[in-house]
């Protein structure tokens, strides 16, 4: 039984939640356009596009994601977009929560890919210990790149004027972000096999074809 099912969220309810979150993201995009906040348009528009990725994969490939995985991805990007409305400034803990949630999705991608290669090639075998270490390194690398992107967008916005698409709040913020990124890696290292084995199997089949 998945965590969502344990809380009484069956397949249909999870799909409904995904649609509600998508509507919320579309509302943020509309509000941002009305207020001419183009940085916020990007912060909500890109996440909105990401929420359709599971459906695109199911349509164009043999990689299928159940409603629980779609909800996981959609919730992660929605939390980020909501934070861009000012929630990051209102609640200091919200940024860490958002990083842990979004990094779990990043770790999930890394887990699915590396285990798909493990299934695909008979000459490659990744023991569970190696996969766990890989997830920590993969998430750390992605987190560092994200912090560089935040710094770069802030620098560019300061030079040309306007609102930064991504905000950074000093060295302590960077450290907290990188630490809580690893929380997402821990979650996937612990429960990735039970939730992502189907995606890994489908990816492996795609590699075979």
Uncertain regions spanning at least 5 consecutive residues: none
Largest sheet: number of strands, sense, barrel closure:
none
Number of strands: 0
Overall radius of gyration? 18 Å
Provide a count of the helices: 8
Distance between the termini: 31 Å
Average residue-wise pLDDT: 83
Residues in β-strands, percent: under 5%
As for the number of domains, it is 2
Q: Which structural category do the helix and sheet elements fall into? A: mainly alpha
What do you see in this structure?
By secondary structure, this protein is mainly α. It has two domains: about 90 residues; about 120 residues, no CATH class. It has eight helices and no strands. α2 packs parallel to α5, α3 packs antiparallel against α5 and α6 crosses α7. The longest helix has about 40 residues. The protein is globular. The two termini are about 30 Å apart. The mean pLDDT is about 85.
